Amino acid sequence: MAMEYESHNWVWDVLYYCPRLFSGLMLTAALLGLSTTYFGGIGLFPLSYVWSDSGVFHKNKCEKKHIRVYMDGCFDLMHYGHANALRQAKALGDELVVGVVSDEEIIANKGPPVLPMDERLALVSGLKWVDQVIANAPYAITEQFMNSLFNEHKIDYIIHGDDPCLLPDGSDAYALAKKAGRYKQIKRTEGVSSTDIVGRILSSLKDTEEGGHTTSTLSNGDLGERHRSQRGQISQFLLTSQRIVQFSNGKGPGPNARVVYIDGAFDLFHAGHVEILKKAKQLGDFLLVGIHTDHIVREHRGMPYPVMHVYERSLSVLACRFVDEVIIGAPWEITKDMITTFNISIVVHGTVAESNTLLPGETDPYSVPKRMDIFRFLESPKSLTTSCVAERIVTNHEAYMKRNAKKAEREKQYYEESSEPSLICIIFVTYFCFFPSFMRF
Ligand SMILES: *[C@@H]1O[C@H](CO)[C@@H](O)[C@H](O)[C@H]1NC(C)=O
Known about the structure:
One of its GO terms (molecular function) is ethanolamine-phosphate cytidylyltransferase activity. Pathway: Lipid metabolism; Phospholipid metabolism; phosphatidylethanolamine biosynthesis; phosphatidylethanolamine from ethanolamine: step 2/3. One of its GO terms (biological process) is phosphatidylethanolamine biosynthetic process. There is one protein chain. It contains 21 helices and 12 strands. It is of the alpha/beta class. The protein folds into 4 domains: 10-64, no CATH class; 68-186, HUPs (Rossmann fold), CATH 3.40.50; 196-384, HUPs (Rossmann fold); 401-439, no CATH class. The strands form 3 sheets. Strands 3-2-1-4-5 form a 5-stranded parallel sheet, sandwiched between helices. A 5-stranded parallel sheet has the order 10-9-8-11-12. Strand 8 (259-264), helix 14 and strand 9 (286-292) form a beta-alpha-beta unit. Helix 9 crosses helix 14. The chain is globular, with a radius of gyration of 26 Å. The structure holds 2-acetamido-2-deoxy-beta-D-glucopyranose (NAG). The site of 2-acetamido-2-deoxy-beta-D-glucopyranose has 5 residues, from loops.
């Protein structure tokens, strides 16, 4: 378990939610001849002991106001769609607990994940709306797991998107929670799917192989641009100012705040990004992140980058708990003007980064902050890069296609070998019992 933001002292929660009750108690205390200094001197410990012992607070409705909601998912490749779903889930309660499905369960249901458990945990824990994570959650909520959510994890509601989620036997995966009256629904988030991301990488690689085009449909930097995925679907992402507001923490740097600046592509937002952003934030009070334009990324990295366009990349970064502000479409070179405008105290860059080739005539983008002596290299905690993730995605996809082809081949053979209805029946039963993954694709 990566994080616990559990309340440290329930007394404070009670004081927060039940101010009237608290003043009532203070009044009672005063009537009994206790002064408030005496109260303060002794601390709240004995009081909490008395209260909890008398059992008043266990039944008190005030405490119940602290609503804990649960949502789960595989979170294999984090994108703004996941972030937005969790944002909506959080809005339905006070504390959001997120279950991250185990590697084994993903393998059994969909094939191997691109990101292993630890990386998926780091990504989910890094989201600003997530209060607690539960590692190795089951793929489908069983009755036993549901009970442990309600009893051990003190969950009030289980949240899921409004898309139907069926178990292999065709029943509703959330039927139990619904029956218990502890199910809430959010709108399924528009945007990219993991399949779409795979498609973008593959189609742009194909483009390069076939015609050697340097420009593709992948990313042209236009508003409302279209991405053609391999399956010919067109996914359109339209960024609205409202979405930016929802993702933003709405605060500027306070007086005397030390502003830290870090820039990059932040493409296919991964655990390495979360770690470096965390480290950068520790150097100051306010973390400003510059997200390079699609044009800049393409020029310096070549195809198929950027896989995610600048708005998608910006939202992913903005969803990270360590980030205070983003510059959507930051310049390549850090200028004196930028440093003054944003009152940047320190400029940092990770030691593990994608190799960017300098274009002819281009100088070191950090020469100004280096001259001002405000530049620092940050030792990257993880050696993960976007191209590592992209490579894994491609390898994974190839393995998946091979598995499917083999599976189809096997089934064809079975059909040809026997036309006996009973045997076909057996095959069907085995098929549906042991390959539930197939039904999900
Ligand atoms: C600029 O940042 C410094 C800290 O590096 C801070 O002391 C100063 O107050 C900031 N200036 C403004 C105008 O916010």
